[in-house]
């Protein structure tokens, strides 16, 4: 994947039963499948937060996946997306699970 051009970046926070159900691992797999870069992590409040970058159509597919699918044992009650903007370069080379 080229590292310059027109891309979209977006932050996300997922609410519900999303910790202890392999949500981060499945998110990383799905993001990698869609050629996205970024990160995902658990936060103390019980949600999962992250950041993704890639082609707009791939980011949109990932948003739909985060809203409705997640990991097999997750129960998503809400998905918030913020700071969506167009960027000219990707800021990472892969999608990582942060501790």
From TrEMBL:
PROSITE patterns: ACYLPHOSPHATASE_1, ACYLPHOSPHATASE_2, ACYLPHOSPHATASE_3. GO terms for molecular function: acylphosphatase activity. It is an enzyme of class 3 (hydrolase). It comes from Adineta ricciae. The lineage of its organism: Eukaryota, Metazoa, Spiralia, Gnathifera, Rotifera. InterPro entries: Acylphosphatase, Acylphosphatase-like_dom, Acylphosphatase-like_dom_sf, Acylphosphatase_CS. PANTHER family: ACYLPHOSPHATASE (PTHR10029), ACYLPHOSPHATASE-RELATED (PTHR10029:SF3). This is Acylphosphatase. It comes from the Eukaryota. Its EC number is 3.6.1.7. Residues 9-99 form the Acylphosphatase-like domain. Belongs to the acylphosphatase family. The active site is at 24, 42.
């Amino acid at each position: 994947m080229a590292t310059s051009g027109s891309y979209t970046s977006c932050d996300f926070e997922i609410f519900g039963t999303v910790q202890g159900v392999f949500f981060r691992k499945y998110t990383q797999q799905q993001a990698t499948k869609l050629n996205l870069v970024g990160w995902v992590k658990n936060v103390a409040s019980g949600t999962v937060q992250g950041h993704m970058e890639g082609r707009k159509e791939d980011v949109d597919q990932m948003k739909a996946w985060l809203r409705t699918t997640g990991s097999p044992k997750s129960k998503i009650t809400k998905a918030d997306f913020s700071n969506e903007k167009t960027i000219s370069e990707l800021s990472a080379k892969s999608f990582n699970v942060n501790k």
